[in-house]
Design brief:
This protein is an alpha/beta fold. Strand 1, helix 4 and strand 2 form a beta-alpha-beta unit. The longest helix is centred in the C-terminal third of the chain and has 18 residues. It is flat, with a radius of gyration of 17 Å. The protein starts with a helix and ends with a strand.
Length: 212
């Protein structure tokens, strides 16, 4: 996830009274290595992350990008799971008790929620961000009538850019038809690919992570 989304997530977790540790020795999740025929490299990164997050007495490891979350959940196949339990950030924020009187500021705008394929199929939590966004007073929250792959697919948008753009078009058409102020998506690759398509189309729709 990008820096702004990470900072926002830490801020929200702190507001819920939680201490957040960001281990300096953690590494990439290894998804791109795994996708591109380097399982040894992915296993080495998994081992580094097990060392970085283990032995700290953590209650949870939280991920923002569903593509990374998918890889982290697959660590048992790469030498062993992370010791602390794994949580999608939106799901974790919703499941925690909120201090009395704490709620998001009102937002009188239209938000279209994009649920990445990794969130829907691999992780199996398609409604994780919906419950978090529904906490915002006044929000006009919409979803895609017919969800489809945005075309990013890990490194697919880099390896097969023309096909990735063709796969993205139905999603861009659906965004244009809904005319949201904000497109919210919980995967970095999806966000980058969709934001690029919106820019090319001259759209002013802002692409943000649900926590933002």
């Amino acid at each position: 996830a990008d820096r702004q989304a990470l900072d926002t997530a830490i801020h929200l977790l702190n507001r819920l009274g939680l201490e957040v540790q960001v281990p300096a020795d953690q590494a990439c999740c290894g998804a791109l290595q795994q996708h591109n025929g380097d399982p040894g490299g992915a296993a080495a990164l998994a081992a580094r992350n097990r060392a970085a997050f283990g032995g700290r007495g953590l209650d949870a490891v939280i991920y923002l990008a569903s593509g990374c979350g998918t890889q982290l959940h697959d660590y048992p196949q790469l030498g062993g799971a992370l010791a602390p339990p794994l949580f999608d950030v939106s799901r974790f924020l919703c499941d925690r008790p909120w201090p009395a009187g704490l709620q998001p500021a009102a937002f009188e705008g239209r938000v279209l929620l994009h649920t990445p394929c990794s969130q829907r199929h691999a992780i199996g939590q398609p409604d994780a961000a919906m419950a978090l966004l529904q906490r915002i007073p006044g929000i006009d929250l919409r979803t895609f009538a017919e969800p489809s792959c945005c075309g990013a697919g890990g490194a697919y948008l880099l390896i097969h850019p023309k096909m990735a753009d063709r796969l993205r078009q139905p999603t861009l058409d659906a965004i244009a038809a809904t005319a949201p102020d904000i497109l919210a998506t919980s995967n970095t690759g999806c966000a980058m690919h969709l934001a690029a398509g919106l820019r090319q189309a001259g759209s002013s729709v802002q692409v943000l992570h649900p926590v933002e």
